[in-house]
Structures are given as C-alpha cells and as structure tokens.
Amino acid sequence: MLKTILHLDMNSYFATAEQQANPYLRGKPVGIIKAEGRGCVIAASVEAKKFGVKTGSTVWEAKGLCPQIVLVPSDMDKYFALTSRMTKILADYSPTLEIFSIDEAFIDVTQTQNLFCGGVFGMALEMKNRIREDLGEWMKCSVGISFTKLLAKLASEMKKPDGLTFLTMENYVEATESVAVSEVCGIGYARTAWLNARGAYTLGQARQIPSLPVEIFDLVWLRSDDELSTIDDLEPAKSVSRTFTTFASLDSQASILKLVRNLIEEACMKLREMNMAGRTFCLSLDNFWARTTIRSPTDDPLIIFGMLNREYGRSPVTNVRQAGVWISNLAFNVQRSVFERRADLLRAADRVNEKYGLFTLYPAILLSSELVRLEVTGYLGDKYYRFRGAR
Ligand SMILES: [Mg+2]
C-alpha cells in the first residue's frame, strides 16, 4: 500500500515570525540578520524576496536591491518557541512525525488520514488553520502531500506562500516537468552543474537525457523509497535574556526602572511561550551588575521586577546607556497553585499579544511619560521601545 506523507514548511519563517510579533513589520520587506549592524541576511520576508533579497545576501547587497528593507536581528528563542508549538499541533495528526528542520516537518498520515473529515485534504486544511490560530494570524505554511518524503517536500515547495499541493501517482511526473532540477532535495550544486552543462534546467529536460547515472536518474524521476524516522525534540533553552542600548543615557531612576521592566516583560513572555520558568535573575546596567536566586521558579515579571528593583535600590546608578536582563536556572511545566489568578491573567495577555502583536497589552507602569509606544527602524528592529527625545 502506498504511504501518505505530508510535508509542512513554514513560509519565510524567521521573517514572518518577526512580522507576527510586531505588526509594524507586516507587509514590509524584512531581512533577518544574525546580530545588529553587520553580516548576511539569514532569512528574508515574502516582500523582501520579491526584490531579490535571499538567504545569504550580504546586508550591502540587500540594501542595494531594496533600500527600504528593515533589518531585524534574529531572535532564536522566539523561533524555537514557535517551532515547539508547531510540533505540538502536528503531533495531533500522527504519531509518526519527523521534525526535519526548525521550520519544516514530515508526517506519515497513512494510518490516520481517514479519521478526519475530508481525509488528508481536510486534515491539511485543519492543520493550516490551527497553525494560524495558535502561532499567529500572520504565520503561514505550505503543505505538500504525496506518497514519498521526496515528493511531499517538493510538493510543499511548488506553491508558496500558503500552498497546498497534492502529487499523486498519476499526476506527479507531469506536474513536476517544469520544476528546476536544483529544487529537488538531493540534487545539490555539483549535480545541478552536471545537468545544466547538458542543457537540462528542468526535470522535464533532465528526463530526456539518455543513460543518466542511476542516482541522478532516480532523482529526476523522483523515485525514492525513503523511510520515515523520528528525531529527538529540540533542545530546551538554558537561559533567556534581553538587552538594550539607548541612544542617550538615561538619567532618572524612573526611566531606568521602566526600561528594566520592559525587558523583563519581554523575557517573561518568551519564558511562558516555552512553558518555562526561572529561578535566577541578573540585571546589568553599564557597570552595575546584580544577581539573585529564588527557591521556586517563576515566569511572572512582577515578581522578577520586584527582586531586581530591590537589587538596583542598593546602589541606584544613573546615566545608564546599556541595560540587560537574564533569567536562568530554567525549569519546565512548573506547577502554579498560589498565584493561579495572576497566572491566568498573564496567559490571557499572552494570547492577545500572540494574536495581535507583541505589547498590544502591557502593564500600566510602561504607559506614562518617558516611554514611547513601540517603534521599529532598521537595525533596532526587535527593540520595541525608544525613549522620547533620545535622538
Ligand atoms: Mg520554510
């Protein structure tokens, strides 16, 4: 019996994740870079790809192709947290699941597809909807369905973004005639060059070449007898940190504490997203440094802020330009009994922020005078806050 394999691939994953987190980035060309200020684009948004920006473009090339591109430093914690939520959803559809990379997975639904209304199509549509509901309205994925992993992966690549493609025994040869040979998983740089040198750029052309070497023959006819295997889950985070450098130094204690609270809020959102809580909290402000550890882990920014505020109060430095918050000694799935109502509140706020963008809801302490509302430009892409009059 033929297998039914589903391949799900998140579209422009890192860039879309940043657009999900920050509505100001949506619809704009976004390039994800490793760190502030330099290097290569490691992911481009759908909008940036239209300008020709792609993974591996240097920042200089990307700006040449698309001067208005917004460059955002990568935030791997955020992407891993989203991936673990994606994994949880996909696991509802079959026990045979292979997380192939941070943004794609194979699922063998041979045994489970008939349990779903509408069969494998109904299943795939439901999966796509749930991803959007749970990871966020801006998050999109392409799904490919076929009878081997190779074909399922190719199918998901044939329509982006937001595609759903079915390659069957009957249609797959014809449906893939115009696919570029380099698109096939297994046809790398050398084999692509070998085929191109013989005038073959598409699979249709490659199939015309007489007496192909057997391993290339199998690839261009998309034959494979690949087995599904499961792999281990992603490694959990060891710590979560947020840092920020201001344009002008902060000279009031109130403004410093607000920035600290801001960073704690964001770090805690990340923690909750990963279903983790921490016991050790560090605060750094230019040359000031403090650390404190508590007995039972928490993900509540109010508690962490209370402790770091007390540390800060021991020697309240001012004229600060750099602030950092670290949370470590992390634990999974911490029981919450005493502050259940507060935990519910935080989770309700998280759901709103996941759906409508980070800091749609935030504590009132961040409302008043010195903090401006979220704003994004260029290299400071993932820093959602600026100080009024700082420039
Ligand atoms: Mg992808």
From TrEMBL:
<dbReference type="InterPro" id="IPR036775">
    <property type="entry name" value="DNA_pol_Y-fam_lit_finger_sf"/>
</dbReference>
<dbReference type="GO" id="GO:0042276">
    <property type="term" value="P:error-prone translesion synthesis"/>
</dbReference>
<dbReference type="InterPro" id="IPR001126">
    <property type="entry name" value="UmuC"/>
</dbReference>
<protein>
    <recommendedName>
        <fullName>UmuC domain-containing protein</fullName>
    </recommendedName>
</protein>
<dbReference type="InterPro" id="IPR043502">
    <property type="entry name" value="DNA/RNA_pol_sf"/>
</dbReference>
<dbReference type="GO" id="GO:0003887">
    <property type="term" value="F:DNA-directed DNA polymerase activity"/>
</dbReference>
<feature type="domain" description="UmuC">
    <location>
        <begin position="5"/>
        <end position="188"/>
    </location>
</feature>
<dbReference type="GO" id="GO:0003684">
    <property type="term" value="F:damaged DNA binding"/>
</dbReference>
<dbReference type="Pfam" id="PF11799">
    <property type="entry name" value="IMS_C"/>
</dbReference>
<dbReference type="GO" id="GO:0009432">
    <property type="term" value="P:SOS response"/>
</dbReference>
<dbReference type="GO" id="GO:0006281">
    <property type="term" value="P:DNA repair"/>
</dbReference>
<comment type="similarity">
    <text>Belongs to the DNA polymerase type-Y family.</text>
</comment>
<dbReference type="InterPro" id="IPR043128">
    <property type="entry name" value="Rev_trsase/Diguanyl_cyclase"/>
</dbReference>
<dbReference type="GO" id="GO:0005829">
    <property type="term" value="C:cytosol"/>
</dbReference>
<dbReference type="InterPro" id="IPR022880">
    <property type="entry name" value="DNApol_IV"/>
</dbReference>
<dbReference type="InterPro" id="IPR017961">
    <property type="entry name" value="DNA_pol_Y-fam_little_finger"/>
</dbReference>
<dbReference type="Pfam" id="PF00817">
    <property type="entry name" value="IMS"/>
</dbReference>
<dbReference type="InterPro" id="IPR050116">
    <property type="entry name" value="DNA_polymerase-Y"/>
</dbReference>
